[in-house]
Write a structure and sequence with these properties.
The structure holds two protein chains of two kinds. Chain A is mainly α. Chain A is 86% helix and 0% strand. The longest helix of chain A has 32 residues. Chain A is elongated and about 55 Å long. In chain B, helix 6 links the parallel strand 8 and strand 9. Classes of the chains: A mainly alpha, B alpha/beta. At the A-B interface, helix 1, helix 5 and helix 6 of A face helix 5 of B.
C-alpha cells in the first residue's frame, strides 16, 4: 500500500518535470509555461483527491487501488505517441503561448495526474482501521507519498534526463506504475 | 572576454597621476532590477558601462564604451561580425537574444537597409537596453518580446526567410536548453534563405562543447568556428565559402566593420573549421537536452 502511494507521488512529480520539457519546443521556457504546468497539475490533483475520496465509499479494495495505478500509466501513453501532433495542432490555433501551454498541458497531463491524485485518499480509506488512528494513518500516507514526490523530482531532474530521452523516461515510469498496479491486483486482499 | 587587467590597472594608474582628484574607488552601480528571469545590474567603471546578470560578480552580458558606443567591446561580438564574411549583404536579419542591443546596433550601422527582427524573452532587458545603453531601433528594426524558439517556429510556419540569423541567447551560466537541440536547429535551418548564414555564440570550455559540435554538424554539416574566450559558430546554408571568398567578402565590408573594432587582420586568422569531437558523441535533441548539466561539468 505504501509502495503504491509512494510510487504515485514519484510518478506525478517526475511527469510534471518532464512536461516542461515536452512543452518547451512549442511554447518556450518562459515563466508562464511553468505556471500553466503547475496550474494544471494542481487542478488535476484537486479533482483526483475529490474523486478518490468518493470512489473509496464503494467496496474499496487493494485490487481497485492497483487498477488506479494501471489507469494512470495508460493515460500517460498519449503523451509519448501523440504529444507532438497535439502540440503542433495547438501551436497553430492558439497564438498566445500562455493559453497554448495551458491547453496543451491540460490536454496531455490532466487525466493521468487526476487519476494519480485519487490514489492517496483511496489508500487512506484502506489503511484506516479505527477513528482513533485515522490521523496517524493519513499522516504516514502523506509522508510516504510526498517523500516519493521529492524522490521523483530530484532523480528525474538531476540524473534521469542526463541518461535517457524524455520518452524513454516516461515509458519507464509507466511500466513501473503498471507493474506495481498489476502486483496489487493479483495480490490477496488481506495484505496491508 | 575578460579584461580584468585593464579594469584593475587603469584606476590605479590614474589615481597615481592625479593624487588630488576625487576618483570613485569602485564601479558605480547605476541600476539593479530583479526581472522575471534574472537579476539585472548595470555598472559603470572607467567609462565602460556593463549589463550583468546574476549576482554583482556575475558575468558581463553587454559592455559599452561610453565615448565610443558603437565600438564592440567583447571579442565574441566582433567574431559574430565575421558572419558578414560569409554573406556580405544580408537583407533580412534575425537576432535571438538582445542583451544591451549591441548586435542590432552594430548591424543597423553597417547595413542601414537591412530589415532586422530582434527577439528577447525578458522585457526588463529590453527596457535596460533602451535606457542605459542608448539602444534605438532603426526604422527597419523590430523588437519582439518573447521566447526565441516560439518566435522561430512561428516565422517558419509563415514561410519567412532570413539571410542572416544570429543566436545569442545564452548567458554566462544558463542555457535555454530548448534552443540547443537538433529540432531547434532544424527550425532555424528552415528559416535560412539560400546562402543564408547562421552565427551562434557558444561556450568554449566544458563537456558541452563536443555535444554542441556534434549537434550543429548533424544539422548543417561543416562549420567555421572562431575561438577567443567564447566560441562563435559560423555556417552557411548550401555550403561553406572557401578562404578566397571569405577574403573577398572581408574586403567588401572592411570599411564599415573595422571601425567597430572587428578588422579583417584580426578576424580572418581566427577562422577555422571545427573538427575532432569523438565520433559517437551524443546529439542533443528535444528528447535529450541536459545542456546545463553538461555545461556545469
Amino acid at each position: 500500500m505504501f509502495a503504491l502511494a509512494g510510487w504515485s507521488g514519484f510518478f506525478v512529480m517526475a511527469v510534471e518535470l518532464l512536461s516542461g520539457r515536452v512543452l518547451a519546443p512549442s511554447f518556450g521556457n518562459s515563466i508562464y509555461v511553468w505556471g500553466a504546468v503547475i496550474t494544471v497539475f494542481m487542478l488535476a490533483l484537486a479533482v483526483g483527491y475529490l474523486a478518490g475520496g468518493q470512489i473509496s465509499l464503494f467496496s474499496p479494495s487493494l485490487r481497485r487501488l492497483g487498477l488506479l495505478l494501471i489507469a494512470a500509466g495508460l493515460a500517460t501513453l498519449p503523451v509519448v505517441f501523440f504529444g507532438n501532433a497535439a502540440l503542433d495542432w495547438i501551436f497553430d490555433r492558439v497564438a498566445d503561448p500562455r493559453y497554448g501551454s495551458l491547453l496543451a498541458s491540460g490536454l496531455l497531463f490532466f487525466v493521468p495526474t487526476a487519476i494519480s491524485g485519487a490514489v492517496s485518499p483511496y489508500a487512506v480509506r484502506l489503511l484506516v482501521s479505527s477513528l482513533h488512528g485515522s490521523g496517524k494513518s493519513a499522516g504516514l500516507l502523506y509522508f510516504v507519498s510526498t517523500f516519493g514526490s521529492a524522490a521523483g523530482t530530484i532523480l528525474t531532474s538531476f540524473y534521469l534526463v542526463l541518461l535517457f530521452e524524455v520518452n524513454t523516461i516516461l515509458l519507464g515510469l509507466m511500466t513501473v506504475s503498471m507493474a506495481l498496479g498489476l502486483l496489487a491486483v493479483l495480490r490477496r486482499e488481506s495484505a496491508p | 572576454m575578460k579584461r580584468g587587467d585593464v579594469r584593475t590597472f587603469l584606476p590605479v594608474a590614474l589615481a597615481a597621476l592625479l593624487p588630488f582628484a576625487a576618483l570613485p574607488a569602485r564601479a558605480a552601480e547605476l541600476h539593479t532590477e530583479r526581472s522575471l528571469y534574472r537579476n539585472i545590474v548595470v555598472v559603470e567603471d572607467d567609462g565602460v558601462r556593463c549589463m550583468k546578470f546574476g549576482r554583482n560578480a556575475g558575468g558581463r552580458q553587454t559592455c559599452q564604451t561610453m565615448n565610443d558606443p558603437d565600438r564592440l567591446v567583447f571579442d565574441y561580438t566582433r567574431m559574430m561580425m565575421g558572419a558578414l564574411y560569409l554573406n556580405p549583404d544580408p537583407k533580412r536579419i534575425l537576432i535571438i537574444g538582445l542583451g544591451g542591443g549591441t548586435l542590432p546596433r552594430a548591424l543597423q550601422k553597417v547595413l542601414p537597409d537591412a530589415r532586422i527582427d530582434a527577439v528577447e524573452i525578458d522585457p526588463a532587458v529590453v527596457r535596460v537596453a533602451y535606457k542605459y545603453f542608448g539602444f534605438a531601433p532603426g526604422p527597419r528594426t523590430e523588437i519582439f518580446e518573447e521566447d526565441g524558439r516560439v518566435f522561430a517556429k512561428r516565422m517558419g510556419r509563415q514561410g519567412i526567410k532570413y539571410d542572416l540569423v544570429l543566436l545569442d541567447a545564452f548567458d554566462h551560466e544558463y542555457i535555454p536548453e530548448h534552443m540547443l537541440t537538433r529540432e531547434f536547429l532544424l527550425e532555424i535551418k528552415s528559416l535560412l534563405a539560400p546562402k543564408g548564414v547562421l552565427a551562434a555564440n557558444t561556450f568554449a570550455t566544458s563537456r558541452l562543447y563536443d555535444f554542441e559540435s556534434a549537434t550543429y554538424y548533424n544539422v548543417f554539416g561543416r562549420f567555421y568556428r572562431l575561438k577567443r574566450g567564447n566560441r562563435v559558430i559560423l555556417l552557411r546554408e548550401g555550403g561553406l565559402p572557401d578562404r578566397d571568398e571569405l577574403g573577398r567578402n572581408a574586403d567588401l565590408v572592411e570599411a564599415k566593420v573595422a571601425p567597430l573594432g572587428a578588422d579583417k587582420e584580426w578576424l580572418l586568422p581566427l577562422f577555422g573549421v571545427e573538427s575532432g569531437w569523438p565520433q559517437h558523441t551524443r546529439i542533443l535533441t528535444d528528447q535529450y537536452s541536459p545542456s546545463n548539466l553538461l555545461n556545469g561539468s
